[in-house]
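Marked as duplicate of an earlier ticket. Keeping the data here for the record.
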Amino acid sequence: MNSFIPATSIDGQAPPERSTGDEIIRLVDVRRRFGTTPALDGISLTARRGEIVGIIGRSGAGKSTLIRCLNGLERADSGEIHIEGRDIARLSEKELQPLRRRIGMVFQHFNLLSAKTVEENIALPLKIEGVAKAERLQRARELLELVGLSDKAKAYPSALSGGQKQRVGIARALAARPALLLSDEATSALDPETTRSILALLKDINRKLGLTILLITHEMEVVRSIADRVAVIDAGRIVEEGSVWSVFANPQASITASLLGGIRPQLPEHIAARLSQTSGAEAILSVDLAGPAAQGALFAELSATLPRSFRLVHGGIDHIQNQPVARFFIAVPTRDATLPARVGDFLKARSARVEVLGYDN
């Protein structure tokens, strides 16, 4: 079993809270079962006006059920689901209709109608509402400009790339001027470059319109790129929640650490494979830092205080929400049995989280 050198929690200063206004979403102890299987097992969550909140989890964690409960396609067994202050669990189907227009939906596979032009696809929600043709086409043109596809109004979906189709899907979701945009794995069918452009577009829309966005995803990179807060869902429960930078810097749940494995520095496999959990010439430590602690000359100070006490094995510094987040792996000689603990104490005093991963010869 891995041992830990006790450390204080990472406490770098958080970025200033922005004014987010009223709650757009408030979930209180939401539960939904299918047979004996709990799909949602007591979900409580809020999202305020202008926030981008990421909901992340593995397949089967409950993400799809959650989004269907939010847009009213699925009824929760119990709990409260407030959208702009109204509990949709208490509304009839007729009462739900105007509220659904306050919710835009972006799908993984675009869901465009192949027999309609781009502008007709975008204008479709307004047509269903009974908006006059001239008005809905004007709105479609405005949205095409917003998503960078002004020249594609008369094109059909078959003539578009995947990224262009998703831009049309986003424009259609905005047609009725929603207060909330639900994005259900909207980039998982796209290549990395196109994904980056779609995420940049969503961030731009959030900034320009003050729109609340809820991102349902299994990709930590999506959350890292644009979300303000993240909630990690596992087996129908939220197991971790917080600002993106703080969760990435110091994941508390094992599922979070696992999901982060692809984008946080990891100990190289050839070193990890030979580690012993009992003894060796060097102790291999992971060192996690965030905020001001990650910006200082930490290792220079360590070297000056405890000469020849470590060597840097691997790691790096990232910036998330304008906050530095660092993870390093160091090797500490065990010729002096007290040295790993002394190094750990030094780092702990500077707000690092330190874990002994094992011993290497």
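See parent ticket for discussion. Residues 192-209 form the longest helix (18 residues).
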